[in-house]
C-alpha cells in the first residue's frame, strides 16, 4: 500500500494519479482511494473517467455524496486492505485534519508493506522552510499513527514554475530529509521542465509528471512516457 500525505496545495493528488496510472500500465491491479476530505480544489475523484479507462478502480464518494467532505469510504478501504491481489494507493487529506481519518485505519494498515510518502511544496504558506516541514511530518505521524517513510519534493508555482523554483525546493527537501531522518525518494517536475534540469545533479530520481486534473477549459487525457513514480514490488 502507498499513502500520499501532505498539506493542501502540495500536489499529492497529481502524484497519486500519475502513480496509479503508471502501475496500471505495468499490469498491476490498482485501487486508488480518494480519502481527501479537506475541501481541496482538485481531487482524485475528478479523474474518475481517466482512471476507469486505464483500468484503475477508484474508491470515492458517488451520487449525491460525490462532493462529500466526510470519510464515508473508510469501510470500503478496510475491505480492500484484506485483498492481497490489489495494490492500494490512498490520497489522504491534507495536514492533521485529513490524517485523523488515516488514524482511524491504523489498526488494519500493513506496516511492513506500506509506504507513507509525504509531498513537500515549499512555495506554500504551510511549509515555508524545513523546520515547518518537520513539524508537519511529526504532526501527521502523531495524528495518523503511521510513520512517514519517504519524502517527495514537489515544489512548484503552477504555470510560473521555473528551474530555480524546483531546485530551491529540492534543496529544502534535502534538509528536511536530514532533519526528519527520512529519505528523499523523488523530485517531481512537469514534462516541459525536465529538459531544463538535465544538467543538474540530484541525489534521487527526477520524475516527469503529467497534469491529470485540470480546469475544464484545459482538460487533457494525454499520458506521460517517462518513468515510474512508484516501484512495482
Protein architecture, described:
The chain has helices at residues 12-25, 48-53, 74-80, 95-103, 130-144, 163-180, 191-194; strands at residues 2-5, 30-35, 57-59, 87-92, 115-120, 150-153, 184-190, 206-209. By secondary structure, the protein is of the alpha/beta class. An eight-stranded parallel β-sheet has the order 3-2-4-1-5-6-7-8, sandwiched between helices. Strand 7 (184-190), helix 7 (191-194) and strand 8 (206-209) form a beta-alpha-beta unit. The longest helix is centred in the C-terminal third of the chain and has 18 residues, at 163-180. Mean pLDDT is 81; it is low at 63-71 and 215-227.
Distance between the termini: 10 Å
Query: What is the CATH H-level superfamily?
Result: P-loop containing nucleotide triphosphate hydrolases
Whole-number count of domains: 1
Average pLDDT, rounded to a whole number, is 81
What is the general shape?
A: globular
Major sheet strand order? 3-2-4-1-5-6-7-8
Low-confidence stretches: 63-71, 215-227
User: Strand tally, please?
Assistant: 8
CATH topology: Rossmann fold
CATH architecture: 3-Layer(aba) Sandwich
Task: List the SSEs and their pairings.
Layout: E1 2-5, H1 12-25, E2 30-35, H2 48-53, E3 57-59, H3 74-80, E4 87-92, H4 95-103, E5 115-120, H5 130-144, E6 150-153, H6 163-180, E7 184-190, H7 191-194, E8 206-209
Parallel strand pairs: 1-4, 1-5, 2-3, 2-4, 5-6, 6-7, 7-8
Helix pairs in contact: 4-5, 5-6
